């Protein structure tokens, strides 16, 4: 993540709304202890947890991770040059979000680098509102969906999932594994940045 660290940003955004950890926990469904650890830089949350926090705050996901303010008026196109993504990490994944300066959009395009070759632990599964399209750019990725056998995807393969189903990704074999993840959540477009009526 560039600029302000995630924990400091979360604490500031929560403070702008006068919201306690208890209130945010109730609104987001994320444990108060987890929220506290995120704010204190003790854990790096998965994407699904960050999405739940953004929903609990009632803000676009991008505002939680990106430095850029929303563009106004809404542009007809948003160009993201190489190196201008909003980046954030989890122990298992590195995320590079595209079109981060455009907040309150229904699709969230991310390029993910899968760092782990071990299946996700119980607390590392992700689930969030919407649907998700996955397309493997490089290497092989094993997709784990709760209640289903793992699926192995190679370069050029794609998968469309209901992202409410807990899911996780594993690098398969040697070498780098990267995929494009585009999440569609119509409710995301309705959220407005803090400070906007």
Give a brief description:
This protein is an alpha+beta fold and about 200 residues long. The protein has helices spanning about 5-15, 20-30, 30-40, 45-55, 60-65, and strands spanning about 85-90, 95, 105-115, 130-140, 140-145, 150-155, 160, 165-170, 180-185.
Written overview of the protein:
The mean pLDDT is 86. It is built from 5 helices and 9 strands. It folds into 2 domains: 6-70, lambda repressor-like DNA-binding domains (434 Repressor (Amino-terminal Domain)), CATH 1.10.260; 86-184, Jelly Rolls (Sandwich). By secondary structure, the chain is of the alpha+beta class. The protein has helices spanning 6-16, 21-28, 32-39, 47-57, 61-65; strands spanning 86-89, 93-97, 107-114, 131-138, 140-145, 151-153, 158-162, 167-172, 178-184. The protein starts with 5 loop residues before the first helix and ends in a 13-residue tail after the last strand. Strand 5 (140-145) and strand 6 (151-153) form a beta hairpin. The strands form 2 sheets. Strands 1-2-3-9-4-7 form a 6-stranded antiparallel beta sheet, with no helix packed on it. 32% of the residues are buried. Helices cover 22% and strands 26% of the residues.
């Amino acid at each position: 993540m560039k600029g302000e660290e995630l924990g400091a940003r979360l604490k500031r955004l929560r403070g702008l709304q006068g919201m306690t950890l208890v209130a945010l926990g109730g609104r987001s469904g994320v444990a108060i202890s987890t929220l506290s650890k995120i704010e204190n830089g003790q854990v790096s949350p998965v994407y699904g947890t960050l999405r739940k926090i953004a929903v609990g705050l009632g803000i676009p996901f991008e505002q939680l991770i990106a430095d850029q303010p929303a563009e106004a008026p809404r542009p007809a196109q948003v160009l993201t040059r190489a190196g201008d993504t909003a980046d954030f990490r989890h122990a298992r994944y590195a995320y590079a979000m595209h079109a981060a300066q455009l907040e309150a959009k229904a699709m969230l395009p991310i390029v993910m680098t899968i760092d782990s070759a071990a299946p996700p632990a119980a607390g590392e599964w992700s689930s969030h509102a919407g649907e998700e399209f996955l397309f493997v750019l490089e290497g092989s990725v094993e997709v784990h969906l709760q209640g289903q056998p793992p699926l192995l995807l190679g370069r050029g393969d794609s998968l469309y999932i209901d992202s409410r189903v807990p899911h996780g990704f594993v690098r398969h074999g040697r070498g780098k594994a990267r995929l494009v993840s585009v999440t569609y959540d119509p409710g995301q477009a309705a959220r407005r940045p803090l400070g906007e009526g």
